[in-house]
Amino acid sequence: MNALVKQPSILVVDDEPHLRSSLCAILDFHGYASMMADCGKSAISALQNSNFELILLDLCMPGVDGHQVMEWIAEKQLDICVIVVSGDTSIDSAIGALRRGASDFLRKPYESDEMVLKIENVLAKRRLERENRAINLQLKESERWYRYMVNSSPDFIYTLDADGFCTFCNDRVQSLLGYSKEEVIGKHFSSFIYAEDAEAAQYVIRERRAGERAISNLEIRIPHGSEEALLTLEFNSFGIYDETDGGATQRYLGTYGVAKDVTERKKAAELIMYQAYHDLLTGLANRKLFKDHLELAIAQARRYKHTLALMFLDLDRFKVVNDTLGHVVGDHLLIEVAARLKNCLREGDTLARQGGDEFTLLLPQIDSKESATRTADKIIKAFGVPFNIDGHELYVPMSIGIALYPENGDNIDTLIKNADIAMYDSKAKGRNRYQLYSASMNVSFDARFSLEVQMHKALERDEFQVVYQPQINIITGKISGMEVLVRWVSPLLGYLPPLEFIPLAEETGLIIPISEFVLRSAFGQAKLWKQTGLLPERIAVNISSRHLEQDDFVDFIRQLLDEYELIGSMFEMEITESMLLNDGDHIIEKLRMISDMGIKIALDDFGTGYSSLSYLKKFPINTIKIDQSFMPGFAGDANNESIITAICTMAQGMNLNLIAEGVEDVDQYRLLHALQCNEAQGFLFSKPLSSHDITELLVKDAPLGPQYLRPQHCFNL
Ligand code: C2E
Ligand code: CA
Ligand code: CA
What we know:
By secondary structure, this protein is α/β, with parallel strands linked by helices. Among the domains are: 9-132, Rossmann fold (3-Layer(aba) Sandwich), CATH 3.40.50; 153-267, PAS domain (Beta-Lactamase); 278-439, Reverse transcriptase/Diguanylate cyclase domain (Alpha-Beta Plaits). Helix content is 43%, strand content 22%. The protein contains 27 helices and 26 strands. It has an eight-stranded mixed barrel with strand order 18-19-21-22-23-24-25-26, surrounded by five helices. Helix 24 (613-616) links the parallel strand 23 (600-606) and strand 24 (623-626). Helix 2 (40-49) packs parallel to helix 3 and helix 12 (318-325) packs antiparallel against helix 13 (327-343). It is elongated, with a radius of gyration of 47 Å. The N and C termini lie far apart (108 Å). The model is unreliable at 1-6 and 713-717 (pLDDT under 50). The structure holds ligand C2E and calcium ion (2 copies). Ligand C2E binds at residues 469, 485-486, 497-499, 502, 515, 518, 542, 544, 574, 604-605, 628, 661-664, 681-683, 688.
């Protein structure tokens, strides 16, 4: 017998000394380690002190007998096998002991082989039981674990059988879908799907049968089980196949799937989409969506050779309402106008708000001119009834212009333009009417589509933008400041540089709202840059004389600084020499106040005016910008060169910052460097850039312009 294998320890309990020792001898011979106890009491104390695997227990003993020892074992829940040893007289009690959990019974007298065999059997059985117990425990543990994972998953997890009936789902079904497990298991999956998605949902089963193993990210809507809510779930599912024959038959058993709740994500995305394509006040389509619809409608009309109508609608007296009753009433009126217009339309028509009090309407398919004019007529009539807004009875008639495809234009821009022209025509002819476009209207187009009218609209329609042109330090090439320049992107007139509209804006006074817009944009951008640590030393804004002359100009600037929580020293205002000449004293006072706020003043286009240098001393000027007309070819032009040299020397003498504008080539740059001009601005370094592009430059923080001119490469002049 191999003692190494058999080392379980056995406690032998018997009150007969002879029997006890002979038993131990036998056990020893068979490789079992044993210990003896001569009575129940010493047996219990032995059990308390050591671990035994088996106890050979005599039942009949004086004092504490075998039964009591067994009771004690049961009470302490010891994991030990008991073989009771008993003579004939106590056979009944031995049977009782077996019932109470003894593993086996040995009848005195016994053969030693019989005893050893019983011991071996009992121990083997016990080992097996222990192993099973461990496996069971493991299984239970892992099952518990999986169940936990499946049930605490934030996703809905399920299995369907091959016909689409639910065979399992996790606890999430309750909190997510509002159904109990019982309500779901056994039901066909389609009974939970939102009707409109029923067909798409078929793919949960169908594709799999066609051999596809999985569907991924399929969005399906499910009405909530108990609440009035429609959930959007993103499904990922996998086929379950019979693998028992090694996967040879690939018999389809059903699906296993996971569905994620994407309702909120979907809502957020929809909201963003909605906001991008709708006018938030009226809920109507915005210009962008309208153009999309129009583009589609034109393509369809071209393909199927039908006619479409585009209408431009404008309220005749909206401005009066807005100006006299205020924006709140104005807004309420617009909402009501939108509702009334919608009432005049058919399904499939697109109504959009272009901005302000202008609306556009697309009738994507009409059989004749008359059906367009009928609709226009209906609208005019509807607007003959006054609105009741916040207690005010308001009569706001409509002027409508109509352009037809293909008659009056075969593309978006022409159609919109011509409908707009027709609308102006109907206004000119007395308002509260509609007018079909005709080519003859173009004769008077110029007047109605004058820059002025367009500029008014541009303000309402947010068509102005600002760009930023870097100003660089001549020595380092790095950005030291930037000039804010306005742009007008007109859908009708195209991309307009400021010189094409600023003079007229100055003349008409529109420069003031434009200038306010530019200042607000610049301050807003400065705040962003400040928050991100990208703020350049200086942001320069062009100030028109008309704006500066406003009584509240200084207050406006102060208010902007407060509003955007910025300090004056971040900004520079570019004014021109001519502004100093007009109404000199009054301007000086304002410039002083601005200067007192820390804002720097630059004299723009310097050199083109007549100001003498001594004259400049009267004004709080920090910077001089050498006009770009001195730049082209100046490096080779003796006259220009001497003017620039004079300006540079003068500026240095007066301790002024000097910026050369319109620097386009390396020779100019080289000369400016030699003349110790501090800063330069021009295409050689960068064109004016969008806020996005200039921010990228600020992030890079690299020198601009030709690197080989930098000091380390030496300026040999
Ligand atoms: P400015 O103040 O002298 O602005 C510089 C003009 O020179 C800008 O033209 C700029 O794009 C252009 N420029 C810059 N570098 C170069 C170069 O290397 N070569 C050439 N050929 N041109 C260069 P922009 O933006 O067309 O502005 C023209 C004028 O319009 C400005 O002249 C300014 O007087 C006026 N302006 C622009 N934005 C505003 C504004 O927001 N408010 C006011 N009141 N006037 C503005
Ligand atoms: Ca300027
Ligand atoms: Ca200039």
